[in-house]
Amino acid sequence: MREFSFHRAASVADLPAGATIIAGGTNLLDLMKHEVMAPESLVDITRLDLDRVEAEGDGLRIGALVRNSDLAAHPTIRRDYAVLSRALLAGASGQLRNMATTGGNLMQRTRCPYFYDRRMACNKRDPGAGCAAMGGVTRNHAILGASDHCIATYPGDMAVALRALDAVVEIDGPSPRRVPLADFHQLPGDTPHIETALQPGDLITAVVLPAPVAGQHRYRKVRDRASYAFALVSVAAVIRLDGGTINHAALAFGGVAAKPWRDPDIERLLTGREPSDALFAEAADLLLRPARGQGENKFKIPLLRRSLIATLRDATGMEATA
Ligand SMILES: Cc1cc2nc3c(=O)[nH]c(=O)nc-3n(C[C@H](O)[C@H](O)[C@H](O)COP(=O)(O)OP(=O)(O)OC[C@H]3O[C@@H](n4cnc5c(N)ncnc54)[C@H](O)[C@@H]3O)c2cc1C
């Protein structure tokens, strides 16, 4: 790890220009130890007044410093946004969730091993260097939305649930604004080093949830170990039935792309229809139409298909499958 200066900010106005934000530090410190990130100055934001969950209209405003464990346990989240609570609890470990913050979780970097290994070419770490993952070990890589320049995935769980909930990210900085989570994380294209909609000097101050949707909330995460492992694939679902017909279907997918993936076509297909295996198979076909394997990760295509179908069966009261 290289030398850096450290400042503890007392207010949002007190953030030094050019400093790298540190919140829980659970991702940033690892990246600094591997020298993937080498900031010259750090600003600790954990004393800022951004650690409340409060009502906003019919929805909720979650401060960027709310810890993952506190958010998962919050009574309103557990009751009205259960998919979010479940996704948070599926992530990392108890100790990590006690430190990790809402803003830091959104901003966590990919777990592509070539990104972490500075001896390997990586367009995300070093634009124009190439991508050693292509033709390499690709078990955890993307099957949707990848490009010729990068096949890394966004690894988080929380953001997958937030995508299904139509969350919005509140940003302070030179241009204060709100950005739908759908537009926050970026697909790689030919600029894989640009991962989010944040600009220099920006600070995430909150995540805002719209009014809750009553219905069945599910988060299904498939991983190599039962805990303390990132998703191979995950499915966040909010499904509401009315008289035997699906009248709300929000589905987001993790572990498969550089951002939490959502496909409005499959939601349109499901809405207004009665649950059936034939319908769910059709939805899976539609979802996977653009999917491309990258060698070792081809298993993710049938895995995502089975995970979607199992989640839909479970959420609509059909007998769950494995
Ligand atoms: C062993 C291990 C296992 C894990 N398993 C999982 C898992 O299964 N699922 C999962 O989802 N996650 C997992 N994680 C990742 C963990 O969730 C993240 O490390 C954590 O959420 C990051 O939050 P933080 O507050 O510690 O961020 P930090 O490490 O402090 O910061 C991370 C990044 O966010 C930026 N940042 C932080 N706050 C803000 C802000 N308010 N505005 C703008 N930028 C900001 C920082 O500059 C930095 O670039 C795991 C981590 C470890 C170490």
From TrEMBL:
User: Which Gene3D superfamilies does this entry report, sorted A to Z?
Assistant: 3.30.465.10, CO dehydrogenase flavoprotein, C-terminal domain, Uridine Diphospho-n-acetylenolpyruvylglucosamine Reductase, domain 2
Q: Indicate what this protein is called per its UniProt record.
A: Xanthine dehydrogenase YagS FAD-binding subunit
Keyword annotations: FAD, Flavoprotein
What species is given as this protein's source?
A: Paracoccus sediminis
One Pfam match, given by its short name, reads: CO_deh_flav_C
Q: Which GO terms describe its molecular function?
A: FAD binding; oxidoreductase activity
Q: Where is the FAD-binding PCMH-type domain?
A: 1-214
